[in-house]
Amino acid sequence: MPCADDRFADELAELNSAEEFLDYFGIDFDARVVQVNRLHILQRFHDYLAKQEAGHLPDYAAYQHWLARAYADFVGSSAQTEKVFAVFQKAEGSSFVPLSSLTG
């Protein structure tokens, strides 16, 4: 007999977009914020989940909390400010590549 954890994992596996995750966890959202930041929100959500205590599997409430926090990070901010992905982290330090170095 499948347990609730298996059902939860199966339901999560069916979610394909930031909007589906937000709807599933009952989080109200502004479609404009999600449209511009969907990958950043999902990556931040993943990063928050990765920081959970070792051996502790997050449940629905924990996932909901971390997704709401990840979404909120981008409501009043931007991808450039939040620096979720390495490309934005490197942008602060001078990552200059001269055109002459790009030879084929």
UniProtKB/TrEMBL annotation:
Pfam families: NifW
Its biological purpose: May protect the nitrogenase Fe-Mo protein from oxidative damage.
Subunit (UniProt): Homotrimer; associates with NifD.
Annotated gene: nifW
Keywords, in A-Z order: Nitrogen fixation
InterPro entries (alphabetical): NifW
Protein name as catalogued: Nitrogenase-stabilizing/protective protein NifW
HAMAP family to which the protein is assigned, alphabetical: NifW
A biological process term (GO) from this entry: nitrogen fixation
Source lineage: Bacteria, Pseudomonadati, Pseudomonadota, Betaproteobacteria, Candidatus Accumulibacter
Stated family: Belongs to the NifW family.
Superkingdom of the source species: Bacteria
